[in-house]
């Protein structure tokens, strides 16, 4: 039995730190990149769960999009929160809901996640636009507003989505 996958995952986590108030661009994928969320009912149910502010507390999810085989989000880490623990909670709760919906016990999410701590000079609106425009880049819709499985905490009239 090889220990390379475990060591590789540990190496990914080695430099990861959790800083309160820090903004993180997060991505995680479905298990085996299966497009579970092409099923509209499953996508709607998962989107409702992800939208719950209580689920994220004390952190905040400022912006997110649920794609057929992955999730992107912009998270502001709360005081005393650990990034890995927050992600583990979100993935666990959504997986339980999905498995109840589909009467299954199969894995929903792949292990781990990718994170990028935003620097102070990286614009929140630019990062949010990147997240929200993901369905357009993937060819799923012509305009971000046409895609139903996303949300942004601070969308305002001045944010351009084209």
UniProtKB/TrEMBL annotation:
<feature type="domain" description="Transposase IS200-like">
    <location>
        <begin position="19"/>
        <end position="134"/>
    </location>
</feature>
<dbReference type="Pfam" id="PF01797">
    <property type="entry name" value="Y1_Tnp"/>
</dbReference>
<dbReference type="InterPro" id="IPR036515">
    <property type="entry name" value="Transposase_17_sf"/>
</dbReference>
<dbReference type="InterPro" id="IPR052715">
    <property type="entry name" value="RAYT_transposase"/>
</dbReference>
<protein>
    <submittedName>
        <fullName>Transposase</fullName>
    </submittedName>
</protein>
<dbReference type="InterPro" id="IPR002686">
    <property type="entry name" value="Transposase_17"/>
</dbReference>
């Amino acid at each position: 039995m090889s220990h390379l996958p475990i060591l590789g995952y540990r190496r990914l986590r080695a430099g990861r730190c959790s800083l309160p108030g820090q903004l993180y661009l997060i991505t995680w994928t479905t298990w085996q990149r299966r497009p579970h969320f092409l099923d509209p009912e499953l996508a709607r149910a998962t989107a409702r769960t992800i939208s719950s502010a209580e689920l994220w507390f004390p952190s905040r999810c400022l912006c997110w999009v649920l794609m057929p085989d992955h999730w992107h989000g912009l998270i502001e880490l709360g005081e005393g929160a650990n990034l890995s623990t927050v992600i583990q909670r979100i993935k666990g709760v959504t997986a339980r809901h999905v498995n109840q919906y589909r009467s299954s016990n199969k894995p929903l999410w792949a292990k781990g996640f990718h994170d990028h701590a935003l620097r102070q000079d990286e614009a929140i609106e630019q990062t949010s636009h990147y997240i929200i425009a993901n369905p357009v880049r993937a060819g799923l819709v012509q305009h971000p507003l046409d895609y139903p499985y996303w949300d942004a905490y601070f969308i305002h009239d001045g944010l351009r989505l084209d």
